[in-house]
Amino acid sequence: MRPVALIVLLSIAAVGGDDKEKRFTVDPAASYPGHQTIEKITIAAIPYTSEDQMKIAFGKANPYKYGVLPVLVVLQNDTGKALRLDLQAEFVDPGNRHVEATSADDVLYIGASTKPPKLRGSSPYPNPFPHGPKKGPLNSTEIETRAFAAKMLPAGESAYGFFYFQTQNMPGSKLYLTGLKDATTGKDYFYFEIPLEKER
User: Fold this and answer.
1) Is the torsion defined by CA of 111, 116, 119, 122 positive or negative?
2) What are phi and psi of 104, to 5 degrees?
């Protein structure tokens, strides 16, 4: 009985170890190859395109399979001041075409429509979507809970989350990000143009 029990315990420990390895985690912004620092604000942008990335971040949902590129944004505030975040994100392809971010709530409906996504300045899907049962294959809790939602960022703190774009990732693409302000004075910080490098 004891050898069998030991084997069972070792199997459980091995499975637990695998789960830990696959847990969704975020590193400091400056540690990613695709990052930019301006006025002591560091922002990283990481495109998620692989099956492994999708499983770790979104479980069974695979946005990229349905023409939606999730971009993880990690923001570090070393300004010594609190920041107000009214972030506006755009995907910029090598031909300088801009694609606006699609809200997480709208992403939940994608895949339920037969109309394919198109690369253009705004979402090719009706907006707002009809509010009813969300039956699309991207109807996943993680799509909403992992979306970038922070509105304030204290000094010395970091925030992260996904922006979603109805496009395919292409070499030489960038994330264009605006909407960072000094929380006290309302001063706008410079825009960021972050190269979309693959996750390490």
Assistant:
1) negative
2) -60, -35
Question: Is a pLDDT exceeding 50 seen at residue 158?
Answer: yes
111: Cα separation from own chain's centroid: 19
| Residue 135: per-residue pLDDT | 61
Report the b/e string of 20-54 with b at 16+ CB within 10 A.
Answer: eeeeeebeebeebebbbeeeebbbbbbbbbeeebb
Phi-psi region of 39 (alpha: psi -120 to 50; beta: other; left: phi over 0): left
- Pull the structure tokens for residue 116: 């394919």
The DSSP output letter for 151 is: -
**Kind and range of the H or E run holding 4:** helix 2-21
Whole-structure pTM value: 0.78
| Alpha-carbon distances, residue 109 vs 85, 135, 169 (angstroms) | 26, 7, 21
The DSSP-derived string for 7-68 is HHHHHHHHHHHHHHHTS-----GGGSSSEEEETTEEEEEEE--SHHHHHHHHTT--GGGGT-
The structure tokens listed for 152 are 């304030």
Walk me through the domains of the chain, giving residue ranges and CATH numbers.
Answer: 27-195 (2.60.40)
Residue 14 CA, distance from chain mean position: 30
